[in-house]
Specification:
The protein is an all-alpha fold. The protein contains 19 helices and two strands. The protein has a single domain, classed as Growth Hormone, Chain: A. Helix 1 packs parallel to helix 6, helix 3 packs antiparallel against helix 15 and helix 10 runs antiparallel to helix 11.
Length: about 425
């Protein structure tokens, strides 16, 4: 092998006619054990996101909550769990904050456990706020370590980490229902038990998280200082534009995902006149199909490119959303499952894309793509709710067609592989090869 500086910090890129070598942090093969641990923590942490809507459904008649109070509770949780994530991302980039991984997991479960012990609406809001902060704390630091343990297959490794969140979100309603059936509202204590056990496992492995990623962390810090000295600490207009486009893509995807999860059961019960059980099964199938899509999208992005997978996903959603209200029976079930697979297939891909754009601030990148972009996706649900009230449930899927169109337009202008390296050619974390 040839390189300008023969150290362990160089690994070969993909070979074409001209062989290129790309500077990276010292990397090994993918550490699947540590990724499994982080992915499991991701799943347990994100159970809270799926559980809270069901808990509020149980609490509403018991405590006489208005729809506005239910919506405000979800808003508080959404802001604290998603919109605030970039703040934790900045903390993750500036300080050694590995402790946020077990702490975030624990707080997410503790806050959700306290909801069942609420005796006032103010206490309920504080419990939702605490749980949301735990979710926000876990994601940037967790995804940062997931990237470091992924080796050169960044998108594949991130998909293994991200699928944990998908599974946890899908399991949340089931666990909330189970705990309520067994113990009533006080059954929410089960969440702090589950999260507490997971937090202990994460805490016990903190030395491995820190020690095994220390070489990459040192080189990342050195390269960050070098880049800041070269650029004066200012982001280029191309970088800012790419980040804006990427966040817009994430928002459009979130509008589709949250719109489907919210209005698909309504469509089945109130328009197709199916049972609530069937509606719940179909919705769970949509979410679990998304988890499979996450596992598939990462390897495809490593093979083809991040941009290609995002474009392919947005383009494929156009015929799927068009057909969904037009087909019935088994074909409707098939379209729902494929839609879930396609829409979430880019979940890990967009996280890695953000980290490639901000290789020296991967915590901030994760906060923007995992938190802010997804959190702002709640705006789309409000819009679709207005459509459902005034135009009917089938119209929701027709209006939803606009979202992949806008997402596709933004994705087409995202930087490709060559442009990514031109935006920041000195990335110590660059895993996307030529």
């Amino acid at each position: 092998m040839f390189c300008d500086d023969c150290t362990n910090n160089w690994v070969p890129g993909r070979q074409r006619k001209d062989v290129r070598y790309i500077q990276m942090a010292p990397e090994r093969d993918m550490n699947r054990k540590m990724l499994a641990l982080l992915g499991s923590g991701h799943a347990i942490t994100d159970i809270s996101q799926g559980a809270l809507p069901i808990i509020l459904t149980f609490m509403q008649p018991l405590f006489g909550l208005s729809q506005m109070q239910v919506g405000l509770t979800m808003l508080v949780f959404n802001i604290s769990s998603s919109v605030i994530q970039p703040v934790f991302g900045v903390l993750s980039d500036r300080f050694r904050a590995a402790w946020l991984v077990p702490l975030g997991c624990l707080l997410a479960g503790l806050g959700m456990a306290l909801t069942g012990f609420s005796r006032s609406y103010g206490f309920l809001l504080l419990a939702a706020l605490l749980s949301g902060l735990g979710v926000a704390a876990y994601h940037p630091e967790g995804s940062k370590f997931a990237r470091l343990f992924s080796g050169w297959r960044k998108a594949t490794g991130m998909s293994l980490f991200s699928v944990g969140g998908n599974v946890g979100f899908a399991l949340g309603p089931l666990l909330a229902g189970l705990f309520y059936k067994l113990f009533g509202m006080l059954g929410t204590i089960g969440f702090v038990v589950i999260n507490g056990v997971m937090s202990l496992g994460l805490w016990a492995n903190l030395p491995r998280l820190v020690d095994e990623t220390e070489p990459a962390g040192r080189l990342e810090k050195a390269q960050t200082q070098k880049t800041q000295a070269r650029t004066g600490g200012k982001a280029s207009p191309r970088l800012i534009m790419a980040l804006v486009l990427l966040v817009l893509v994430v928002i459009m995807r979130s509008w589709i995902n949250m719109g489907m999860a919210t209005f698909l059961p309504q469509y089945y019960v109130h328009y197709l006149h199916q049972s609530q059980v069937l509606a719940a099964v179909i919705t769970s199938m949509f979410l679990f199909a998304g988890a499979i899509g996450t596992l598939t999208g990462g390897p495809l992005a490593d093979r083809w490119s991040l941009k290609a997978v995002i474009i392919g996903s947005m383009a494929a959603l156009l015929p799927l959303l068009y057909l969904l209200p037009l087909v019935s029976g088994i074909w409707n079930v098939v379209v729902v499952a494929v839609t879930g697979f396609v829409v979430i297939s880019t979940f890990a891909v967009t996280v890695v894309f953000g980290q490639e754009l901000l290789p020296h601030n991967v915590g901030l990148a994760s906060g923007l793509t995992l938190g802010l972009g997804i959190g702002l996706g709640g705006v789309g649900t409000t819009l679709l709710g207005w459509v459902a009230d005034h135009l009917g449930l089938p119209a929701v899927f027709h209006v939803m067609l606009l979202f992949p169109v806008l997402g596709l337009c933004c994705a087409l202008f995202l930087p490709g592989r060559r442009e990514l390296k031109q935006i920041d050619g000195n990335s110590p974390m660059r895993g996307v090869t030529e």
